[in-house]
Design brief:
The protein is mainly α. Helix content is 50%, strand content 8%. The protein is built from four helices and three strands. Helix 3 packs across helix 4. The protein is globular and about 40 Å long. The N and C termini lie far apart (37 Å).
């Protein structure tokens, strides 16, 4: 993948994530693709009618988590980006891992 393609993918993911985070679309569910957060969320949790109260509180505490809540239609692309170093998705995934360690 060229740098131009990476940049385009990152911009698209960021735009999609911001849209999903601010206004969960009524027509499409969102899914959490980050690491499990004990007592809050498991990887792959789907939200059809907005986030749970606990998840909203965690997103407020660590906004990077919002990047890992994506429309179901974007799951494959987001998971691909998780494997590319220094993409917003990969960076946010690492931040959640650090957040989990802090709580241990």
């Amino acid at each position: 993948m060229s740098e131009i393609e990476k940049t385009k993918a990152i911009k698209e993911l960021t735009t999609t994530t911001l849209t999903a985070k601010k206004t969960v679309k009524k027509t499409e569910a969102v899914i959490y693709v980050g690491p499990a957060i004990p007592g809050v969320v498991s990887t792959g949790t789907v939200y059809n009618n907005g986030l749970t109260t606990m998840m909203q509180e965690v997103v407020e505490e660590l906004p990077a988590i919002g990047t890992l809540i994506v429309p179901v239609s974007k799951v494959a692309e987001t998971r691909r980006l998780l494997n590319i170093k220094n993409t917003p998705a990969a960076i946010c995934y690492e931040k959640v891992l650090m957040y989990n360690k802090k709580g241990e």
